[in-house]
Amino acid sequence: MKKQHLFIGGKHTESVRYTTLQAPYSGETLAEVASASAEETEAAVAAAVQARQAMCQMPAHQRADLLYKLSAMLEERREEAARIVALEAAKPITAARAEIDRTIETYRFAAEEAKRLTGETVPMDAARGGEGRIGYTMRQPIGVIGAITPFNFPMNLAAHKVGPALAAGNTIVLKPAEQTPLSAYFIANLFHEAGLPDGALNVVSGDGKTIGDVLVQHPDVAYITFTGSPAVGTGIRSKAGLKRVTLELGSNAAVIIDKDADLDKVIPRCVTGAFTYQGQVCISLQRIYVHEAIAENFIQRFAAAAEQVVIGDPLNEDTMVSALITSKDVKRTLEWIEEAKQAGASVAVGGKAEAGVLRPTVLVNVPREAKVSCQEVFAPIVVINTVNSVEEGTKHVNDSMYGLQAGVFTNDIQTALRAVDEIEAGGVMINDIPTFRVDHMPYGGVKQSGIGREGVKYAAEEMTELKFVMFNKN
Ligand code: NAD
Q1: CA angle at residue 216 from 211 to 222, to 5 degrees?
Q2: Which domains does the chain show, CATH number per domain?
Q3: pTM
């Protein structure tokens, strides 16, 4: 049985406690994984503090080389990494490979950002009294970063924190989700092999609250970057005091489909958006508002396409939908479907679960108050309602406590421009699903979807302190 220790100060460190990690689909035991205590988390912070000088003194070209090297090493071990994700997260293998490919690119973007973290000059004589002075800004590493990540993209969402943090010369304590620690340790080992100074990246797996409370409240941790659920994110913000915090939280992402949209293109994109990785994606397509002129045709074709989706073993090359992350989620989602039905919704397809796998489910005419519509469903469930215009659709999109990304399919430029202005979200995708993301674009939410932006350049900036310098020539 594989025993996975903590990774602190460049060493695999035995923990006082271990828990058994099982694959969500097969139930197979994957490893005994360390569950860090508060003291062990403090030791990880101390190691990160110690490594600060080595990282601060490392020139940008060396930080970039390290990140390029990591990216190349990951490319060589792509299949091994994808299998780890497929097993511990029940992510279908093709989606797991796609995640690794994005992770390789995210670290490459981080390598590039390491070389272009710049300040600017300030025209001092623009102010009376500023004559004869030179002013400029510079960006310095913020210090020790506490990074807390969710289960659903265990490699790439960790890369969105570790990559920019190292690019900007910081050190990190990474706390992966309970269900997906092996991905984090895999990356930590690669960084170690690549020559990262000991202590620059530490990994502590285990209970969220035990480890999270230490990281969030520790005086030596300068910044918390969290991706996960709104409930946990809100708790972190309330405990963090003056510490800088970035929160990447959930959503109930929506798309609007106008009457002139080309359904041959739209339907496959909506299937991808709603069902990839069984809907356990923060920008998974959950709500569809389709123009009444094409609604019947759309619903019929979309439901037929949903029925074709292959479900089952994540290691099967054809699988698109596998087990939900826990059996509790299966129970919850079936209850939510039942609640929607009681409230008048009809099930066009799906609505049943077998062996931990919820079948792709399409619900029609769902009232706005039903949980499947107004809360984050995080499962392969999509609700479809009809609207008489994109304007009406926009009102429904905004009728949400969340606002991460939204999509609009329309060929009318004025309609598109108006939707861009009016939709309340961190990103608007015209002629695509809200689920679209590449890793250098700014990414983050409004309302309860979060605070701050990721996307390597934007994250790297948040992981620095802006210092202003003035030289008096008088
Ligand atoms: P989660 O909030 O349950 O857990 C996320 C992380 O927080 C885990 O590492 C967990 O151990 C830790 N945690 C738990 N309690 C904590 C506490 N009290 N203090 C500090 N940390 C604690 O989320 P999850 O189920 O792993 O992931 C799903 C959620 O993540 C969904 O809401 C999804 O939308 C969101 N998500 C958001 C984005 C984004 O970029 N906006 C991306 C992916 C996932």
Answers
A1: 125
A2: 3-249+449-471 (3.40.605.10), 254-438 (3.40.309.10)
A3: 0.98
